[in-house]
Amino acid sequence: MAGRFAPQRPTRTTVRGGHVPVPRTAAPGRTATRTWIPPGPFDLGLVLGPLRRGPGDPTFRTTPDGSVWRATRTPAGPGTLRVAVRSGTVEAQAWGPGADWLLDRLPELLGALDEPEAFEPRHRLVHESARRRPGLRLLRTGLVLESLIPSILEQKVTADEAYRAWRLLVRQYGVPAPGPAERMHVMPEPGTWRMIPSWEWHRAGVDNKRASTILRAVRVASRLEEAASMDEEAAMRRLQLVPGIGPWTAAETVQRSNGAVDAVTVGDLHLPGIIGYALVGDRDADDEAMLELLAPYAGQRHRAARYILLSGRTPPRRHPKMPRGDIAKW
């Protein structure tokens, strides 16, 4: 892949399922590298897939060689991470001011702190799905806003609408990703989100309610980022102190930022029916029924939901899709 920066004398650190800090070597224009050997079965696509916000996400890309590219804003600044798996070994490269931060936390990102072996299937379908997907590990980015903002954009709209808004706003107000990640962008910093004019939110199809929630969140960005180091319940409470952020948005965020193994996405239009249909044939299940079905997985309910979704057992469509709106045309 052609790039703006040519790698120069990269360093390489190999860690077998551990957390050894990587030497600080990512000077501007240079590539820092790290390898890591997962402690068990590992599927890169399953692990990092939840970070992708639609097929045109400017912060996430997969390439034909099986690599995953991620552009993100770390506490040290923008960074680009490329991850691939070769013969059971994870090989990572990083660029930009945030490169060392990303490589230091590579194992945690890829689920090193997760304990899939602690999961005990209670349904035949869940057991079969877990057997077929042994490489699923729950990621942990350690970053809150990068998952919170797109989750807010997804409130009460179709996925296509939310993905379009994220794509337009990041491309226009973010910064080009460091290194050779052409056409990728790092999301805007909090101060930039606050400067987006109202008409640009409108052009991106974002109504005032969601835009206002994002603006309230970025005003307290540092306090929200602290949630990444909290336990699951405390992190959920911290996020929901911001008006406009409810249980659905908080769960969608901490599943990614904290590797929250038990955070259930309640308030979702489709999830209760999918879980109800998959486990007991009840396509009309509501949140209460879903939580009752997931009760045997207490402490592991998010993982159970992932396995159920991966099983592919979904109710046949009975109603038209949720209508897509475009407030930019109003």
List the helices and strands and how they pair.
Blueprint: E1 14-16, E2 32-37, H1 44-48, E3 60-62, E4 68-74, E5 77-86, E6 89-95, H2 99-104, H3 106-109, H4 124-132, H5 145-153, H6 159-173, E7 175-176, E8 185-186, H7 190-195, H8 198-203, H9 208-219, H10 221-225, H11 232-239, H12 247-257, H13 271-280, H14 287-294, H15 301-310
Parallel strand pairs: 1-2
Antiparallel strand pairs: 2-6, 3-4, 4-5, 5-6, 7-8
Percent in helix: 25-40%
Which parts are unreliable, with pLDDT below 50 for 5 consecutive residues or more?
1-16, 18-27
Distance between the termini: 42 Å
The SS-based structural class is alpha+beta
The largest sheet is: 6 strands, mixed
Q: pLDDT average, as an integer? A: 91
How do the strands line up in the largest sheet? 1-2-6-5-4-3
Order of helices and strands: EEHEEEEHHHHHEEHHHHHHHHH
Key structural traits:
330 residues, 12% strand, alpha+beta
Describe this structure in words.
The chain is an alpha+beta fold and 330 residues long. It has helices at residues 44-48, 99-104, 106-109, 124-132, 145-153, 159-173, 190-195, 198-203, 208-219, 221-225, 232-239, 247-257, 271-280, 287-294, 301-310, and strands at 14-16, 32-37, 60-62, 68-74, 77-86, 89-95, 175-176, 185-186. The strands form two sheets. It has a six-stranded mixed β-sheet with strand order 1-2-6-5-4-3. A two-stranded antiparallel sheet has the order 7-8. Strand 7 and strand 8 form a beta hairpin. It is globular, with a radius of gyration of 20 Å.
